[in-house]
Amino acid sequence: MSDPNDDAIGDTPDADPELTRNRSGGGAAGVWRVVTSLVVVALVIVLIVVFL
User: Fold this and answer.
1) I need a surface site. Which of 1, 6, 27, 43 has the fewest CB within 10 A?
2) How far apart are CA 6 and CA 14, in angstroms?
3) In this predicted structure, what is the pLDDT of residue 52?
4) How far out from the chain centre does Cα 13 lie?
5) Under DSSP, is residue 22 helix (H, G, I), strand (E, B) or coil?
6) Measured torsion, CA atoms of residues 40, 44, 47, 52, in degrees rounded to the nearest 10
7) Predicted confidence (pLDDT) per residue in 5-41, tens digit
8) Region labeled Disordered — which residues (predicted)?
9) Three-class DSSP category at 27
10) What is the pLDDT, as a whole number, of residue 21?
11) How far is CA 27 from its chain centroid?
C-alpha cells in the first residue's frame, strides 16, 4: 500500500511561495471592493431608471 503522505507528483512542494498571496490584512481591501461594487451597481440601476 502507498503512504498517504506521498505526493502524487513526486517531491514537489504543494505551492510555490511566490505565487501564493499573504492574506493577512486583506480583509479591509475585500470589504472596500464589495462596497465599491455595490455602489457601482446602484449607480447603474439609478441611471437606467432615470433615462428610461
Assistant:
1) 1
2) 12
3) 87
4) 22
5) coil
6) -170
7) 555 555 666 666 666 666 555 678 889 999 999 999 9
8) 1-26
9) helix
10) 62
11) 11
From its phi and psi, is residue 20 left (phi > 0), alpha (psi between -120 and 50) or beta?
Answer: beta
How far is the C-alpha of 5 from the C-alpha of 7, rounded, in Å? 6
Among the listed residues 23, 43, 45, the one whose alpha carbon sits nearest the alpha carbon of residue 35: 43
How does 8-34 read in b/e, with b if 16+ C-beta sit within 10 Å?
Answer: eeeeeeeeeeeeeeeeeeeeeeeeeee
- Amino acid 37 reads S
Q: How far apart are CA 20 and CA 25, in angstroms?
A: 15
* C-alpha cell at position 28: 479591509
What is d(CA 46, CA 17) in angstroms, rounded to the nearest whole number? 44
Phi-psi region of 3 (alpha: psi -120 to 50; beta: other; left: phi over 0): beta
